[in-house]
Amino acid sequence: MAALARAVDLGEQGAIPAAMLRRIRQLEIKARILADESLLGTYRSVFRGSGLEFEEVREYEPGDDIRSIDWNVTARVGSPFVKKYREDRELNIFLAVDVSASSWFGSVDRSKRDLGTELAALLAMTAMSNSDRVGLLRFASGLQEWLPPRRGRDHLLRVIRELLLAAPRRTRTDLGPAARFLTNVTKKRGVVFLVSDFIGVDLDASCRMLARKHDVIALVLSDPRELELPDVGVVALEDAETGAMRYVDTSDRRLREDYAAAARRRRLERRHALAALKMESLELSTDRPYVPALMGFFNARTRRA
To answer: Are 40 and 62 contained in the same domain?
Structure first.
């Protein structure tokens, strides 16, 4: 526990309570278990790095591809030489996690924030197991926290700590500043996982620029009660991001039908908007396992490639 505390030390912010250290360790263990060989292999087949890098020139050997012959060197020394390349396997993986107030909601045994935290921890563990660097950006109405891409267990624990300690923000989600930041933070193309419920999100020109610069995957978090209302009589509903309250009679069948229809319409509009930006998306719910859905998404992406 002492070593763990040093790895996730808060510095000037003070020591981390023992209960929080246990939560960090538990989430690390869970992510390590879930990031098994099958998920890691699927991840590796999807994200192959940014291309090939020149390594050396060597003498031609029988069986070498003649297209790899370096004709300049061959002409200079009088015998055939070939160029040898290696795959640039190293990737920057950016986890952009929405911590606005709508993520607090959950009608089952976990909230959307819990789901997003577990999902981001799993992706971080999987990427680092593949020797990729992982960066974390927390955002709401603006940028909240930025951890530059790194590797190693200490960095993984720092990522988990920042996810768990993120203070809830009673603000709406503004994706624009986060999109602009991630577009400009590096010249090298990377992979961006946008983890959000995308409620009230404006997919503007900054998002289009982000999708042109990076490979962007939207992980859309939802809860079953956001899709349909149960028949439980009069209930008070609060908008987590504004604090506005409204009482509704859920025994009204027409109201429940209209609510479900509006939810379906929003989901369809969001899918079309993300597709128009060339962003792939995966919808995940608090009441369903996320690992099979993630593996299915990766496998489908591999087949398309």
So the answer is: no
